[in-house]
Amino acid sequence: MSKLPRRTYLYFTAQSINLTTAVMSVTMSAIVGSALAPTTMLSTVPYGFQFLFVMLATYPASRLMSIIGRKKSFMLGSLPLALSGCIGFLAVEKQSFLMLIISHSALGIYISFANFNRFAATDNVDQTLKPKAISLVVAGGVIAAAVGPTLTEILRDLGGFALFSLCYASFIGLAAISFLLAICLPHDFIVTKAEININKVSAQDKSLYTTPVVIAMAVAALGYGVMNVLMIQASMHMKHMHESFSDVRLAIQWHVFAMFAPSFFTGNIIQKIGMKNTICTGLIILLVCTVLNIGANNYSVLSLSLILLGLGWNLTYVGGGALLAQSLQNNPVAIQMQGRNDLVIAIFATIGAFTPSLLLGTVGWKGTNAICMVLCTILLVLICVLLNKKTRDLSAVEQGGK
């Protein structure tokens, strides 16, 4: 079979919806949160709860899929999105901060299900077509980068409704489309008992945490945490600079595009320069981003730094994932270790979502960037030292990745 099955394009569309809701929440959550929160330092708490519930619901979602299958799970997973839309609309209309938190928590549950689109697209697909299937689904991020911020701007002040209330209400329509897409999926592939038994193999063995595995986890997690902190805080900082919502939306739009568009080429980059150089390049780009933020204070530079932030995230996230996959190749507990990797990423992403307003109110914009700079520098130095030692495991991975 040389062509991707029809369901791959259904997953692509479903992932576009998933990422559109995520982009919309990024664009408006801090602004709405600051308007409804009792204090400015709590303005990103709703967005933090969104990531918290992504973290809490991811493993139960995967277990549910292994029991009832992908199709029914995706159908159920669309329901929290509709709930998020209803509660979010009422939260803005009634000026309720608590309801806003509940809305973003429900959105997090939906995202935890929808994030499995990229894995579902590879089910029972020929080995040679798996990368193509993943790439197509990841491309949904490019669609989201265009649709999400644009939809937010169109709906944010429309028809006499409270600012952004219709943006949340649009989640109901997106949930309906997501539900219909799930109905169109074929009867899917439930994990067999044999596979479940394999997944029960203990992953507690410390020998599994080789240098490459630890590096992979650290790079992807730190990259995600730094990206979340600076992305959210940048939108707040631009608002403090009295930039218009349209300008903030455009900057975030370019940032999201920079996060996902390189995915079409990151695999080729890894093949050409190796995983080590790809990861280090990603960290260096994140460092350049922090330097720009500290050294300048105007919209153009902030927009450029957000683009670099997206690109740096892509190289660290994809590079770290590739390093982990290579390190765990043919390992019977690979699924468990990948789950642990995603849990670490989710923890850092959640911290990155909860802390921007707190950091902005304490150490400020430049202080936050200085902290991120120090963390990225420490990790970059550690990686260079470990790689220069040419450990047996790391050398094997580097050779396998080229």
Would you write up a description of this structure?
It is a single chain. This protein is an all-alpha fold. The chain has 17 helices and no strands. The two termini are 27 Å apart. The relative contact order is 0.14. GO terms for molecular function: transmembrane transporter activity. Keywords: Membrane, Transmembrane, Transmembrane helix. It holds the Pfam family MFS_1. The chain crosses the membrane at residues 9-32, 44-62, 74-92, 98-121, 133-155, 161-186, 207-232, 252-270, 277-296, 302-323, 343-361, 367-387.
Question: Can you give me a brief rundown of this structure?
Answer:
By secondary structure, the protein is mainly alpha-helical.
Describe the biggest sheet?
none
Structural class: mainly alpha
Name of the CATH homologous superfamily of the largest domain: MFS general substrate transporter like domains
* Terminal-residue CA separation: 27 Å
Integer-rounded radius of gyration = 21 Å
Which CATH class of the largest domain? Mainly Alpha
Instruction: Assess the beta-strand content as a share of residues.
Output: under 5%
- Given as residue ranges, the uncertain stretches (5+ residues, pLDDT < 50) are 191-196, 390-402
Number of strands: 0
Give me the strand/helix succession. HHHHHHHHHHHHHHHHH
Counting copies of identical and different chains, the oligomeric state is: single chain
Tally of individual domains: 2
Write the layout of secondary structure elements.
Blueprint: H1 6-36, H2 45-68, H3 70-94, H4 97-114, H5 117-120, H6 130-138, H7 140-155, H8 165-184, H9 193-199, H10 211-240, H11 245-260, H12 263-295, H13 299-327, H14 334-354, H15 356-362, H16 364-388, H17 392-401
